[in-house]
Design the sequence.
């Protein structure tokens, strides 16, 4: 991680306390391409920071929301995006842990550090700033920090997304959702810690706590699935089986040792995995958000001790495709948010270990494309066509 992709980090004090006009990719309605608009970004409120973003990337969750797949979560106009990195431009009242010029990574699952949840070692959720797909405003006052002039000439609010809204040159974050990172860390890579890499690697390390010599199956080899494989590799898993319908995603570089094309398998995938592993894997990870795949992942684990970790975003109101009696075979299933990392308190240590060579995370293996922010709709198309893992957009 020697290269530093941080670009120009000029700190302009003249903008502090004033609205900033900048470019943003606005989602006006579901299913339509994003529109590049000039938006006004208000100064940060209490316990908030305004961040000049330098890099952002696109996740399948952004694509799902843009399509409007869950009607209950539709709220437009909106600025999507939740993977990014940038520099604090200014801070609001009461902010003590961040200052203008700090390098930060936004996180959708915040950590205030003071509530009962944050003080508990049993969860990475926060009582106030946890991820909430229905939330579209700031926690401090229920308002938005973005506004735009619509087609009729009227200025109207633009809603927030997953505590982050990174498809803009500037954004406003709750300080609980901004992680300070090493000033020399390459921000073009650090943006992947906002979601994909942290979620997958953390699922392997924290949620499953994969042990050396174990067997693993990963269903869905997108960025999160490959991050699971990377985490399993770093933990010394003996066998990592990747399952996908796209054979081009099979990559031993990311830790996957075997590949199953679920369309060409000729039998239920769980049967093939049980045959390959003498009864099933120790751990399976569902990274697709498809109910039938979740069932295959669950049944692919070994009875008596198998653990399935659910990471895919499943559209409501679909229910889990399991019968309660199937849990009496000793298999377990659990969900995972942000890799069970406490973002504010744990991610800086991960970055430091990457910087000093103690931890060798393969960031470059996830970045398949780099483009200017103006090409964001092209980047969405590549993701939807299965031609990219992560496309990093630079402002």
Sequence:
């Amino acid at each position: 991680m020697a290269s530093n992709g941080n670009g120009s980090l000029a700190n302009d004090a003249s903008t502090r306390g004033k609205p900033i006009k900048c470019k943003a990719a606005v989602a006006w309605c579901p299913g339509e391409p994003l529109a590049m608009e000039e938006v006004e970004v208000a100064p940060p409120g209490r316990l908030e920071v305004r961040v000049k973003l330098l890099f952002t990337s696109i996740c399948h969750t952004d694509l799902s929301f843009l399509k409007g797949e869950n009607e209950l979560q539709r709220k437009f106009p909106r600025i999507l995006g939740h993977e990014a990195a940038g520099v604090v431009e200014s801070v609001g009242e009461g902010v003590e842990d961040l200052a203008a010029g700090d390098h930060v990574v936004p996180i959708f699952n915040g950590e205030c550090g003071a509530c009962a949840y944050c003080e508990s070692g049993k969860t990475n959720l926060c009582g106030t700033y946890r991820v909430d797909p229905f939330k579209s405003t700031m926690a401090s006052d229920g308002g938005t920090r973005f506004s735009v002039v619509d087609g009729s000439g009227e200025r109207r609010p633009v809603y927030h997304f997953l505590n982050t809204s990174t498809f803009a040159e500037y954004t406003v974050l709750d300080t609980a959702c901004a992680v300070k990172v090493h000033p020399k860390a390459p921000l073009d890579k650090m943006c992947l810690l906002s979601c994909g890499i942290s979620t997958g690697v953390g699922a392997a390390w924290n949620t499953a706590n994969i042990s050396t010599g174990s067997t693993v199956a990963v269903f869905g080899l997108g960025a999160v699935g490959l991050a699971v494989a990377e985490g399993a590799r770093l933990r010394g898993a003996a066998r990592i089986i990747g399952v996908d319908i796209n054979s081009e995603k099979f990559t031993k570089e990311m830790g996957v040792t075997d590949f199953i094309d679920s369309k060409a398998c000729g039998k239920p995938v769980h049967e093939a995995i049980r045959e390959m592993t003498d009864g099933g894997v120790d751990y399976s990870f569902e990274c697709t958000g498809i109910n039938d795949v979740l069932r295959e992942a669950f049944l692919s684990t070994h009875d008596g001790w198998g653990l399935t970790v659910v990471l895919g975003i499943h559209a409501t109101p679909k229910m889990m495709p399991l019968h309660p009696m199937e849990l009496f075979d000793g298999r377990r299933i659990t969900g995972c948010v942000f890799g069970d990392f406490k973002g504010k308190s744990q991610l800086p240590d991960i970055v430091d270990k990457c910087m000093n060579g103690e931890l060798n995370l393969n960031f470059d293996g996830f970045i398949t494309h780099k483009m200017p922010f103006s090409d964001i709709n092209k980047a969405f198309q590549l993701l939807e066509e299965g031609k990219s893992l992560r496309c990093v957009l630079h402002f």
Remarks:
- The radius of gyration is 21 Å.
- The longest helix spans residues 343-355.
- The chain has a mean pLDDT of 94.
- The longest strand covers residues 48-57.
